[in-house]
From TrEMBL, chain A:
Required for the activity of the bacterial periplasmic transport system of putrescine and spermidine. CDD domains: TM_PBP2. Keywords: Cell inner membrane, Cell membrane, Membrane, Transmembrane, Transmembrane helix, Transport. Its main location: membrane. This is Spermidine/putrescine transport system permease protein PotC. It is found in: Cell inner membrane; Cell membrane.
Automatic annotation (TrEMBL), chain B:
Residues 85-291 form the ABC transmembrane type-1 domain. It is a multi-pass membrane protein. Pfam families: BPD_transp_1 (PF00528). InterPro entries: MetI-like, MetI-like_sf. It comes from Tabrizicola piscis. Belongs to the binding-protein-dependent transport system permease family. CysTW subfamily. Keywords: Cell membrane, Membrane, Transmembrane, Transmembrane helix, Transport. PANTHER family: INNER MEMBRANE ABC TRANSPORTER PERMEASE PROTEIN YDCU-RELATED, INNER MEMBRANE ABC TRANSPORTER PERMEASE PROTEIN YDCU-RELATED-RELATED. GO terms for cellular component: plasma membrane. The keyword Transmembrane helix applies. The chain crosses the membrane at residues 21-44, 84-108, 120-140, 172-193, 214-236, 272-292. It is found in: Cell membrane. This is ABC transporter permease.
Length: 274, 302
């Protein structure tokens, strides 16, 4: 018999290590957030609470443009990647394994496997070639838009949208769809009236993950963008080379806040069981 | 197989392909296709101001390890490149080892909490995981800088009288990578420990095993797939890290990712940059293949 108070799962030092890890994980983030409210210009000395840096960031047209650009790209990337990922998930689940299915999986998950820097230089080369070709053919106007960035972001967001949607599809009961078919619903009606509403939480979760992933991307955007096309993260990366002011902390805190809100929503959505 | 059944499979395969096509088209143009072009570029000749000249050459690949002496035109071992590879490998291995060392107790702690509490701890691990990598790296910069939190505390406690300069050293990169990749180690470890049957521990103790023996002979072998998954998830992005060495290494402590950038952005040698990218990709693929083989073997045994 085990001695009194002896818990088998307790290993000495493990709980202490875990608590230290959690503190270490959050301390730097809290420091960063705290200093965004610092009245002093210095990153080192605490000069009292103030929202000045938020006001400065708000007035900074570069920050405003970058924020708008980030949101536009992330919205498009989320919608596009979720749409194509939903189709692919419908095409690859709930049917017998078919020839080429593995190839589809490999391609969909490719952005997760290839190091980001490699994808980034690859896209830089390809979009460079496309730009040269377009300009030579009198379509130079096409090279100034956000299309490249949206395409690149949509691509690396696909696996993030695909995974929750596929998980949702695999957990879904086929009975309702079979019942609908028995009641002479056409395949499209079944999809529109039965499958889609059941799938919606998975799609929303997928879209939110895609949105966060796109919003956070630094490396690929840094290599693909043209001059003056900074997103929030690439603007921040550029600023980190120059003189640092708490304005960066304010921008970081806002981005952080947005991520936390989206993720909390994501967890609440996926936690609910069917 | 009956003709009807055969027919059903054919339509399902066709639908599978049709439905997957839009995703595959995007991925082909913005993921797979570009990789093929990088492969081609690695066999071309560098242009004068960056880019390439369309002449076949293997110098991009040779240049990974050898460089041509400007004066004697002789190929010699490129020490600077070796130093970068060594730094990348060493820091990635150190990061993997250290994240395991502190990640294992953390994952164990989470897995042994009461179910309700467990969700909260898991959520606390996941938030940093989804937080922008650049922001987290910058947060570490804030802590490590000369007038940052670490030095303020150390000097306040009288442990040191002058600030310790950690920023822009390999130590800073190591701390930063450990910090940003830690959740990638904890999450798969947690998944493995969560499935672990705690009755085995009781059995171990009943048979007079010490805690250390139980840990080494019972726990570690069973959660091994989680350890391997976590190690791959940390090692792979560490090896290709770009943001963390750039922000915390200050351009002086380059890793392979920054070295690739250097070849492209300063217009130095695109074929070499392309060859380095391919090499990095091959290393990552080998690591993933080893993992997949191991994972499959593990699951077939139950």
């Amino acid at each position: 018999m085990a001695e009194r108070g002896f818990q088998v799962a307790r290993l000495p030092g493990f709980a202490t290590t875990a608590i230290i890890v959690f503190v270490a994980l959050y301390l730097p983030i809290f420091t960063l957030v705290a200093y965004s409210f610092n009245a002093s210009t210095s990153l080192a000395i605490w000069g009292g609470f103030s929202l000045d840096w938020y006001a400065k960031a708000w007035d900074n047209s570069q920050v405003k443009d970058a924020t708008l650009r980030s949101l536009i790209i992330a919205s498009f990337a989320a919608v596009i990647s979720t749409t194509v990922a939903t189709m692919a998930a419908l095409g690859t689940t709930r049917r017998r394994a078919f020839k080429g299915q593995t190839l589809i999986y490999v391609m969909i998950n490719q952005p997760l496997m290839v190091p980001e820097i490699v994808t980034a230089v690859a896209l830089m080369i390809v979009f460079g070639l496309v730009k040269v070709w377009l300009t030579a053919n009198g379509m130079g106007a096409l090279t100034t838009g956000l299309g490249y960035l949206i395409l690149a972001h949509s691509a690396f967001c696909i696996p993030f949208a695909y995974l929750p949607i596929r998980a949702r599809l695999e957990g879904m009961d086929l009975t309702l769809e079979t019942a609908a078919a028995d009641l002479y619903a056409t395949p499209w009606q079944i999809f529109r009236r039965v499958t889609l509403p059941l799938l919606a939480p998975g799609m929303i979760a997928g879209a939110m993950l895609a949105f966060v992933i796109s919003l956070d991307d630094v490396v690929i955007t840094e290599f693909v963008k043209s001059g003056g096309q900074d997103t929030l993260p690439t603007y921040m990366l550029g600023q980190m080379r120059r003189q640092l002011t708490p304005e960066i902390n304010a921008v970081s805190t806002m981005l952080l806040g947005l991520t936390v809100v989206l993720l909390t929503a994501f967890f609440l959505l996926t936690r609910k069981k069917t | 197989m009956s003709p009807a059944e055969d027919n059903a499979i054919r339509t399902s395969a066709r639908n599978g392909w049709i439905l997957s096509t839009p995703a595959l088209v995007i991925l082909f143009f913005a993921a797979s296709g570009p990789l093929l072009i990088v492969l081609i570029y690695s066999f071309l000749t560098p242009g004068q101001h960056g880019n390439v000249v369309w002449d076949f050459s293997t110098n991009g690949w040779v240049g990974i390890l050898w460089s041509k002496d400007i004066f004697s035109e002789e190929w010699m071992l490129a020490d600077a490149h070796l130093a970068i590879f060594w730094r990348s490998l060493w820091l990635s291995l150190m990061t993997t080892a250290f994240t395991f060392l502190v990640g294992f107790p953390t994952a164990w702690f989470i897995a042994t909490r009461p179910p309700k509490e467990r969700a909260l701890w898991l959520f606390l691990i996941t938030i940093p995981f989804w937080t922008n990598l650049l922001i987290r790296t910058y947060a570490i910069n804030e802590v490590l800088r000369k007038e940052g939190l670490m030095n303020t505390v150390l000097m306040g406690l009288g442990i040191t009288d002058s600030p310790i300069e950690v920023l822009y050293t390999q130590t800073a990169i190591f701390i930063g990578m450990t910090y940003v990749y830690l959740p990638l180690m904890v999450l798969p470890l947690f998944a493995a420990i969560d499935r672990f049957d705690m009755k085995l521990l009781e059995a171990g103790y009943d048979l007079y095993a010490s805690r250390m023996q139980v840990l080494r002979r019972v726990i570690l072998p069973i959660v091994k797939p989680g350890i391997i998954a976590g190690s791959i998830l940390v090692f792979v992005p560490s090896l290709g890290a770009y943001v963390t060495p750039r922000v915390l290494g200050g351009g002086k402590q380059m890793m392979i990712g920054n070295f690739i950038e250097l070849q492209f952005l300063q217009g130095k040698n695109w074929p070499l940059g392309a060859a380095l990218s391919m090499l990095l990709l091959v290393i990552v693929m080998v690591a993933l293949l080893v993992y997949v083989r191991y994972a499959n073997k593990g699951s077939s045994h139950g």
